[in-house]
């Protein structure tokens, strides 16, 4: 049922393009029309949709910006949008075209395999909140997966409005229960207890983890301990006892007593909330990079203050509106950019530090979208025909007017062996204007540590070589050495010809 | 015995019953186990609903009797 709400800047030039991720739901279809996100709702589903949009739950969640903003389009406007397309006959007056609505556009869509565990937990909470509020007004959810949620900044937003339907008041079952367990609870649980990254689970499985898969990971004691007992072991044992040619369990259950059905569902949601709480990621997790900004910082206090001042000065001078912070670690510079008024996307390959950035942005109300992305292996295009979820670079190329690459170039050069020219070329594709980049020379202790005795491989890398490489795509506005360290900060602006190309 | 302890014993007995199932090496219907578990939970919450209703009914009966007795004494 997933409906992706945004398109890559690359795709904006193509009009009337159906979003490939929206094909699963027969009740409607999403399109990108001239960069606008438009949904056609099948006429049979219009009464249900209108009833939901008029409900208190929809109004409250929309007011809290937890439900995607939606406006109704007049028939003439819709007709104009779909003129000269295969969908034009829908509006020729011979048949009922249904309803056409427009959704707000999420600037940079991010997918669950790019979220920190904290974000998956928050998306699960939103789904449960919505399900509970809907229950009170006689609605239910058809499905409950992270694909129905997108993040704007650190805040989750429910986007798939066609997931909501009128429910049978006497039905005591929550149909998406198993999907909620598979796509939210079990990935969070295996991440918390076994350290399995969400990217491994959710990038390869649209529908999350089966209880049987988690059961096989458990030792004899863990199988009997909560929450594994109720989330993995009991379902596995029950499935083994169940005859798979017996479809009776999938038939709708109806009780004669709607009050009892509602009592059961309320208790079920309370139980799911308790389970979700037990799967919540701990705030004191550690990783290789989680202490970089505290005990492992490779700068003196003065050097770090000078580095912060350099970045703050750039932010005050150019007022970028969209900033990408590559290798954000705990998000110090992302926070500076967000506080200067920019909308920030902060990426790092370490889910623990990305979780820290999310907590900071969430508590301080900063417009930062933190994502688990390894720039040496950015998320590929995945899903049906490789078109359901576009590649990270296709979503972000040219989407920023400033890019920060602080203390990250040497990692890509040494550990990933990415050529310097290629690195700067990619930076020039991502930014439309400013690049703040830190050069770390081969005699720097961290550089030597990463090189692991292969220093000779980088004999060619000097400050002059770095500057020459920068000049191929950028103009050097200024540079600053950080005290006596072998580290230099550069403020670069994309060369005018390159900007025109972009 | 509290409701929580009763629930724990119920869960243990249930687990012993289902764990004694023979290993299924055939095709397993994915998701059926979680759905069955939800149905069991629904049955359990349904029973709690009736206990809850019974408690409310008993409470109202006791209140009614107490009110009647009070009125009788006043007369």
How would you portray this structure in words?
The complex is a heterodimer of chains A (502) and B (75). Chain A has helices spanning 46-53, 56-63, 75-81, 117-136, 177-194, 198-202, 211-217, 228-241, 258-278, 301-318, 332-339, 351-364, 392-396, 409-414, 420-430, 445-451, 463-471, 496-501, and strands spanning 17-18, 28-33, 36-41, 70-72, 99-103, 139-141, 149-152, 155-158, 164-166, 322-326, 343-348, 368-372, 400-405, 431-440, 474-481, 487-494. Chain A is an alpha/beta fold and 502 residues long. Chain A has a seven-stranded mixed β-sheet, sandwiched between helices. A five-stranded antiparallel β-sheet of chain A has the order 1-2-3-5-4, covered by helices on one side. In chain A, a hairpin with a 2-residue loop joins strand 7 and strand 8. In chain A, helix 7 (211-217) crosses helix 8 (228-241). The relative contact order of chain A is 0.09. The model of chain A is unreliable at 1-15 (pLDDT under 50). Chain B is 80% helix and 0% strand. Chain B is elongated and about 65 Å long. The longest helix of chain B is centred in the last third of the chain and has 43 residues, at 32-74. Chain B is mainly alpha-helical and 75 residues long. The A-B interface holds A 172-174, 177-179, 181-182, 210-212, 224, 229-230, 233-242, 244, 249-250, 253, 255, 260, 263-264, 267-268, 271 and B 11, 14-15, 18-19, 21-24, 26-42, 45-46, 48-49, 52.
